[in-house]
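FIELD: query
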Amino acid sequence: MSLNRVTRWSARAACLAAVLLVAACNDSTAPKPPEPAQPPTPKTSRVPSLVTSAMAADAPSAPNAAASSAIGAEASDASAASSASSTPSTPSTPSASPAPSASSELIARGKYLARAADCAACHTSADGAPFAGGVPLKSPFGTFYGTNITPDKTNGIGSWTADEFYRALHDGVAPDKTLYPAMPYTSYRQMTRADSDAIYAYLMSVKPAAVPNRKHDLSFPYNLRFGMRVWDWMFLTDTLPDASKGQSADWLRGRYLANALGHCAECHTPRGTFGQLDKATPLGGAALARIAAPDVTPEALVARGWTVKDLQTFFGTGIAPQGSAFGEMYPVVHLSTQYLTPDDLRSLSTYLLGDAAPAPKPLPDHPDTSKLTAGRNMYLAVCAGCHAADGTGKPHVAVSMLGNSTVRQKDPRNLIVAILDGIEPQKFPGLEAMQDMPGFDKRLTDAQIAELSNYLRVAYGGQAGDVNSEIVKQLRQK
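FIELD: result
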């Protein structure tokens, strides 16, 4: 018994340095909407946030690659995601032809599933060819770069078989290396083999791009992979726990969309000491440096006023009565969820709230803002021009602050960071758009931003006015 215990702790010690990296890295036949415009790089954070931290499998090394290429090029975060319709700045000659054997129906299904899995977010850079990689992810331990997953045989996955592709998604093992758990095979492991094969068929049909992969720029010991198999032995499981309850067809389908394809847990579930998902608090929210992936359990969602209908609208259009998608969630809507069918949107929303969804909680009728005069004056001076004096917003200009989901979060950091950094202009499916919100980091002091935040939280969010200048200072400096 004592020998086994020593052995287990030795193994854990061996992988500790490597797995700490994971904690820093923190997912019908109705007609599809048109391809979205290129989403801007979010101004509200520098690290992964909501539903979009998908890290994808390394592309294989070039046949004669040097040993230094062992670091590989895992995928990066959705924070710099771009549209899959973008073209490379410098056209290159394909080195391989797409696989011709897949049927058009299978390829079309694979395209839908690849969107549901948000593949473009990590594998298509702002100025690059679709799925040619190069998307950067900055972390305290270095920078990751998304990989080339086009069918180019030298730089992409053109030499991979469907079996090897499935093994990368299911086990975190590429043909030439093990993958860091930052690639969400912890979620993709639940994907069916049929869906993996469909995504593979689609990727094999896209235009090959002879774009070399960029090596991670990681400091020692985070550039070592030897501990990854031990990490898998300790933490990899076949399923993830549910935050809601249900048994309906919608709930079961929504579980698959959220837990497997959409890999929501990768951002919205806290992580333990070794970077593993904390399965005791599924979808309970996670701090990601300056920002936070919100708690999206049923209780937290209804506390912010969400209903199944509103969630369905939000995922499909990027905007709902509770606000609009911004920051890291903005590319998720543009590259992934807006393409889901109405049935899948309903299923995803049903899963998040459960079959017996709790009733949304109303805001206080008469919030006491008598001690927040300075914050109200600040709001009227710098915010009311767009968001209206009563906080109800202006259509096609600025969202409502009254009942806004970010304002109603217990954790104020996302609100503070949005005030500091601002938000890029937002174009949503159809004709809807929101103008850009300027950042106030140069115009307002820490104390003023704290006063403004407290007024917003109390007057429009039903939260405590407990933000102080020290909290703002810390977020400003990150």
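FIELD: remark
The radius of gyration is 22 Å.
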